[in-house]
Amino acid sequence: MNRVSIKGEQHPIKKIFSDDFMFTIPLYQRPYAWTKEEAGELLEDLLTFLGDGNETIDELNPYFLGSIVLIKSEQPAAEIVDGQQRLTTLTILLAALRASLPTEHANDLTTFLYQRGSLIAGTPNRYRLTLRERDADFFKEYIQNEGGINKLKELNSVELMDSQKLIKENAHLFLQRFHAIGEHCCIRLAQFIITQCFLVVVSTPDFDSAYRIFSVLNNRGLDLSVTDILKADIIGKIPESQQEKYTKKWEDTEENLGRELFKDLFSHIRMIKEKKKLSKSILKEFQENINPAAGPQQFIDEILAPYAKAFSDIYNLTYESEARAQEINQLFKWLNKIDNFDWVPPAILYLSRNRNRNNPDNLLRFFRDLDRLAAGLMIVRANINERIERYSRLLTAIEQEEDLFNSYSPLQFTPEESNNILRVLDSDLYLMQKIRRYVLVRLDAALSEGEASYNFSNITVEHVLPQNPGANSEWMKWFANQQEHAQYVHRLGNLVLLSCAKNTLAQNYDFDVKKQKYFTTKTGVSPFALTTQVLREQEWTPEVIARRQKEQINVLKNLWRL
Fold it and tell me: Residue 24 forms beta bridges with which residues?
């Protein structure tokens, strides 16, 4: 087995931007993203270190710019795995300094932007840093080439890509600042950057080890992710004439969904395709089993884009239709309250299919049943293997266009499963911390016919009959012994919802006082149907709790068709 060599060395900027390195930004990297805030912070930090000019450059303390991670062998060619934002910003900074200095100093700085070619020898200019293909020519013309930065102001920002707008904005920021500090300070700053600013360069010839190094060193910012690597693999297999079109489609999809959800989407796509628990890294399973690079355009057009649209609608509650949209989005809202995301792949697969998306009646029927299934599996605390097995069968049924609504479908409960759910609901629900609030909120919404709106972070579950009633309290008249108290105290019929935490001492008030001080708001009206029902009761005896228990179980039976 060959060992991969890893090198780590500290270099000044004059070494970084020299013939020893020829930096390129690979396709999987994101576009340039530093705003004026980040670029301005870097410049002001450098100026602070530079000081007021009383010291020579050699006497100044070195300035550490951080680390960069490269894929690099003995040749100058180096792919940037981590560090493109800093290297790009430093290049813009040097170009702006060049434009702010007399010719003799400006010519010196050009050396750090590109190596001049030769007409006689027929060699082209060799640029120290080459951006991604979409920005490379723009960067050369308006930043690296002499005089280019002064032409930036002529460009209409509306016509530029986002990365190019940021390059333009940061270049103008630097030019304005250099004009303000004057020529002498600019010369000192250029000397300081070139000789006294350092980067640690970590390099390895192997991509996997470079990515591992990056993951260890960089736990902030716009991390390189599995999706970035897959993007390089997939876009790289598309004919060059179509790469820009599909790169834009990919990046628009990622931007619309958001970077974190976009990464989650690939986990859901893997589940849809593989229908089993992850056994390797998601990257390896994608590359080896799903292999989207074998049909890259088809993957983006027929899987990535429609699945992302479905996922966005489900997560953001943004399904649109002339009918049923509000009911469907309400079901998405409830599904998003489930304490796992194993239900998401079948939801994405079903919604992404045009025959379903354009049939809101079918969507409503399917998502009612999916909500029921997900809630039921959560209530009985089905483990991850049980959930994956169930949803895998459901994915197969969706793909094979089986009847999802017959009694044998994996979307439906068996009589035994329904009984198990009812058994949990009819037991000491309060002791089931992971589901008690969810069940009570669903119950309350059903009692209010779905009209209530809930903020989960402000809702608490409370007992009517206290857990520890006083020895001489009214409660002891209604619940004469400990056995009877234990039988009812944690049951559904004895539980209510409150919109905020109350004084724990008030939990033990007698019933009439508790209704006034504990179960009402400042306006005297409870926002919860469950709690309002309690306020109507004149006493709180075992018979009252038993009646409420039966009524509330029946509501849940009807809600989830148990």
Answer: 79, 130
Q: What tokens does 439 get?
A: 């069940």
* Contact present, 527 and 499 (Cβ < 8 Å): yes
Q: What is the pTM of this model?
A: 0.70
Task: Give backbone dihedrals phi and psi of 205, rounded to 5 degrees, phi first.
Answer: -80, -5
Instruction: Give the whole-angstrom CA distance, residue 500 versus residue 457.
Output: 9
Mean pLDDT, all residues of the chain = 87
Contact by Cβ (8 Å): 562, 556: yes
Instruction: Determine the pLDDT at residue 7.
Output: 72
Residue 325 CB contacts under 8 Å (≥ 6 apart), including other chains: 319, 360
Q: How far is CA 150 from CA 141, 153, 408, in A?
A: 11, 7, 71
Q: Is the pLDDT of residue 18 over 70?
A: yes
How many whole angstroms separate alpha carbon 346 and alpha carbon 362? 14
Q: Would you say 210 and 217 are in contact if contact means Cβ atoms under 8 Å apart? A: no
Q: How many CB atoms lie within 10 A of CB 196?
A: 20
Q: Are 101 and 190 in contact (CB under 8 A)?
A: yes
pLDDT digits (tens, 9 = 90+) for 482-519: 888 899 999 999 998 887 655 454 566 778 877 777 66
CA distance 399 to 404: 11
Q: Residue 167: how many CA atoms within 13 Å on its side-chain side?
A: 32
